[in-house]
User: Which sequence fits this backbone?
């Protein structure tokens, strides 16, 4: 089949072509109040991209055979004939890479029994609903292009998380947690501890006070810092968003936008990083990008197209969530690097709020406005953690906030787990950083 | 392919089954400012198979005949750990096809027509275009099962989006329908331009009547109400509305219903299990009429309800979902004539941060305006906070005219004193 594809594509007159052939096995196991929902599926397909006289055409089909390929090719060629302003892309040296293919068999009996045991741990007073989710996705992809590259990669990850709801009188609270690891499902660790923690946390939330609204000084834990780096900085640094004129960072290269202790990177290779990748979906080896260096905007995340357009080096940030998606500029692990402050320094706050764990967030990349919710929060008095608060979110503007960072901790945790959505594509992404202290931020 | 599937089902002695076949042809064109950047075509066809055995149900899907057998084997492996259902049978009544769910004008649009449409959209943008896009989808759905059901329908969908900016202020608007309406699509650019031209600022904290319109109201109903009335939420004890069936949860001027036959984007003749659709009232003059179910969740919960099964394509496990959602209009011509001081909110964001268990929310105002001393001040960035159920109870009035957006047809509603900080 591959010889057929290459033979056929080599006869086409175009500036560039690439093709991705993928097959994926998924397992999703959900135990909710002693009832299992389970799905075990397989899917496959191919996506062809052609750059023809400076115009892209992309087509995909959910089968891997010669006739499907022929059909997709026809559509890609047709679409590439719709002219655009001449698009150029950066070329890249020929790559040969092959991961060993290994079928992963998951023992359903072992995992269903383990989940049943975990569920038992989470039952108890005040608990009215429990759910535990376990997902494994195992993809093998083959990338071929007109530069002669042939890259066969496996991409598998495991993910799990509990959601527990507790009720005391009229007060209802829920707690969700998550853990993600690249590789086999056995790499997920401490699931039982995670469940016990979730149960304790939701019960504590029942007694938490509502969060006071207004301007406050805050301390963010590595997970909250990670979300800030991803949502507020990472998206604004995606060169396709910048190219459209939709980013606050567009004209700020070389400009100081924050405290000179602030360095934020997007890295494809962090220890236990959930967003680690080897090659991107354009066959480019993934490289570290320093987005903000000592408070100064340093560089952006690129695809072949955006790097050519802005005369920047390739970074390997073009990712497609599946064979049926056009690769677009995405993050890998977006993290703030540690600073020089001890934990005591960071917590040296007369009054404020400590926010931990991520519960969701959103950002407007053009004006830099953001809002993030924390999973848990505590009042801080004279550097000590006090009573718990609930429903805490912070909002503000990216650049103001970076200037308001007062202290960056020496600690470092880059293992934040997320699935990032953009243009209808969802990809795994990691984030993290140290503890930090920010002054004057709006709590809601 | 159906013949092949039936052969394999026979081989494994499977007598109760349902086959959901879908095909999708999607063409999309997207611009980077004014440049036609991404042009994509996607075709997928496949089969979602549900098997009922010993009162347990299992699901699998495949797109290639070579994978039918292994998929069935996988499905039978996992059925062992599935919960037992109460009185579950597949639907045995073929639905009547009452309404047309496709528009030939969409089928006939080729990529050149789409390009011309986008060109015209860009021309209608007054300020700096960020992006314009159009996505066209032609799909066909067929459901057959062991009870003799065999129903099918052709569907079309057109999504258009205009996005622009002026001096750091953005404006966007979308169109989503099963019908092609060129004038409405071209008008998106004008609405987006109008939003980008608003000189906004953050205002100091106020507690005022709030008029919710458009995206703001739709997102509140969608994220904070519709997600909480699905039968699985009741079954798993995870909705704030448990115990509130047939009780007043909203002001008595609020009626919300699902209408599969009206002209909204999700117009359909049957649900994802082939059950003939009908109009269903969800909130009747403030009273919550009860949780909604698909057949599988109903059988799990031992209730006799159905008709709310949603399946976007063959890969999706049948889940509870809706067709078109409508809010019954009120009698007031213009809600802005009721109070001298009020806030109008068009768009909110930050819905990822809401507490869906309690209904508490703090959301950023994306677009809106404050009217005070007969002056209009556009606002952005302020936070609207409150509780969904308090909000529903505090609806003071509802406007007469309706606006269609995707699968929603809604008027503007006026809510008493909400906090904006």
Assistant:
């Amino acid at each position: 089949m591959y010889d057929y594809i290459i033979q056929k594509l080599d006869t086409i007159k175009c500036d560039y072509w690439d093709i991705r052939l993928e097959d994926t096995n998924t397992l999703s196991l959900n135990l909710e109040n002693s009832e299992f929902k389970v799905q075990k599926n397989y899917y496959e397909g191919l996506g062809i991209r052609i750059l023809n006289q400076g115009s892209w055409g992309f087509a995909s089909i959910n089968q891997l055979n010669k006739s499907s390929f022929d059909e997709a090719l026809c559509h890609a060629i047709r679409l590439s004939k719709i002219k655009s302003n001449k698009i150029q892309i950066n070329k890249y040296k020929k790559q040969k890479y092959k991961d060993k293919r290994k079928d992963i068999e998951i023992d359903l009996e072992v995992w269903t029994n383990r989940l049943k045991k975990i569920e038992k741990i989470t039952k108890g007073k005040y608990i009215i609903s429990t759910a535990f989710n376990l997902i494994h996705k195992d993809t093998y992809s083959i990338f071929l292009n007109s530069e002669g590259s042939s890259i066969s990669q496996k991409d598998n990850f495991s993910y799990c998380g509990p959601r527990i709801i507790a009720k005391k009188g009229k007060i209802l609270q829920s707690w969700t947690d998550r853990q993600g690891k690249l590789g086999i499902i056995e790499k997920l660790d401490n699931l039982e501890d995670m469940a016990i923690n979730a149960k304790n946390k939701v019960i504590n939330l029942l007694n938490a006070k509502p969060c006071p609204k207004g301007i406050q000084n805050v301390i963010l834990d590595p997970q909250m810092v990670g979300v800030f780096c991803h949502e507020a900085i990472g998206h604004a640094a995606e060169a396709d968003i910048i190219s459209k004129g939709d980013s606050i960072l567009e004209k700020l290269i070389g400009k100081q936008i924050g405290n000179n202790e602030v360095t934020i990177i997007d890295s494809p290779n962090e220890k236990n990083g959930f967003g680690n990748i080897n090659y991107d979906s354009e066959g480019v080896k993934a490289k570290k990008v320093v987005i903000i260096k000592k408070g100064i905007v340093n560089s952006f995340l690129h695809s072949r197209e955006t790097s050519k357009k802005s005369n920047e080096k390739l970074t390997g940030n073009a990712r497609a969530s599946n064979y049926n998606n056009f690769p677009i500029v995405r993050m890998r692990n977006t993290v703030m690097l540690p600073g020089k402050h001890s934990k005591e320094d960071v917590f040296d706050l007369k009054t404020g709020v400590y926010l931990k764990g991520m519960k969701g967030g959103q950002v407007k990349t053009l004006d830099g406005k953001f809002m993030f919710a924390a999973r848990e929060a505590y009042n801080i008095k004279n550097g000590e953690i006090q009573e718990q608060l609930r429903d805490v979110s912070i909002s503000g503007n990216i650049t103001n906030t970076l200037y308001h960072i007062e202290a960056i901790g020496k600690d470092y945790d880059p293992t934040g787990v997320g699935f990032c959505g953009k243009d209808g594509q969802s990809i795994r992404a990691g984030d993290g950083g140290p503890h930090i202290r920010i002054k004057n931020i709006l709590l809601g | 392919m159906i013949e092949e599937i039936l052969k394999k089902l026979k081989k494994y002695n499977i007598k109760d089954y349902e086959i959901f076949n879908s095909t999708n042809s999607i063409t999309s064109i997207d611009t980077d400012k004014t440049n036609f950047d991404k042009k994509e075509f996607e075709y997928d066809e496949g089969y979602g198979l549900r098997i009922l055995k010993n009162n347990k149900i299992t699901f699998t899907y495949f797109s290639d005949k070579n994978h039918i057998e292994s998929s069935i084997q996988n499905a039978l492996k996992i059925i062992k750990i599935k919960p037992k259902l109460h009185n579950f049978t597949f639907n045995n009544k073929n639905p009547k096809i009452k309404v047309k769910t496709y528009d030939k004008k969409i089928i006939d649009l080729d990529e050149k027509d789409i390009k011309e449409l986008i060109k015209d959209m860009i021309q209608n943008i007054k300020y700096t275009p960020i992006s314009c896009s159009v996505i066209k989808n032609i799909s066909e759905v067929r459901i057959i099962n062991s009870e003799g059901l065999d129903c099918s329908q052709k569907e079309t969908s057109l999504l258009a989006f205009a996005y622009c900016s002026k001096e750091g202020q953005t404006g966007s608007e979308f169109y989503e329908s099963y019908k092609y309406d060129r004038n409405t699509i071209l008008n998106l650019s004008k609405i987006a331009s109008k939003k980008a031209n608003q000189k906004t600022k953050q205002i100091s904290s106020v507690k005022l009547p709030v008029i919710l319109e458009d995206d703001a109201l739709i997102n509140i109903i969608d994220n904070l109400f519709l997600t909480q009335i699905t039968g699985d939420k009741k079954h798993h004890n995870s909705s704030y509305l448990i115990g509130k069936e047939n009780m007043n949860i909203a002001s008595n001027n609020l009626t919300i219903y699902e209408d599969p036959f009206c002209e909204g984007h999700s117009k359909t003749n049957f649900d994802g299990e082939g059950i003939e659709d009908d109009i269903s009232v969800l909130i009747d003059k403030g009273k919550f009429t009860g949780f909604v179910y698909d057949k599988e969740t109903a059988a799990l919960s031992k209730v006799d309800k159905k008709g709310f099964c949603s399946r976007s394509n063959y890969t999706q496990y049948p889940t509870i979902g809706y067709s078109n959602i409508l809010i019954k209009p009120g009698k007031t011509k213009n809600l802005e004539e009721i109070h001298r001081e009020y806030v109008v909110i068009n768009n909110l964001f930050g819905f990822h941060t809401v507490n869906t268990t309690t209904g508490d929310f703090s959301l950023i105002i994306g677009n809106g305006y404050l009217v005070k001393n007969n002056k209009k001040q556009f606002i952005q960035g302020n936070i609207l906070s409150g509780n969904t159920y308090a909000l529903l109870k505090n609806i003071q009035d509802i406007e007469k005219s309706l606006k269609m957006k995707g699968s929603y047809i809604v008027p503007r509603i006026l809510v008493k004193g909400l906090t904006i900080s």
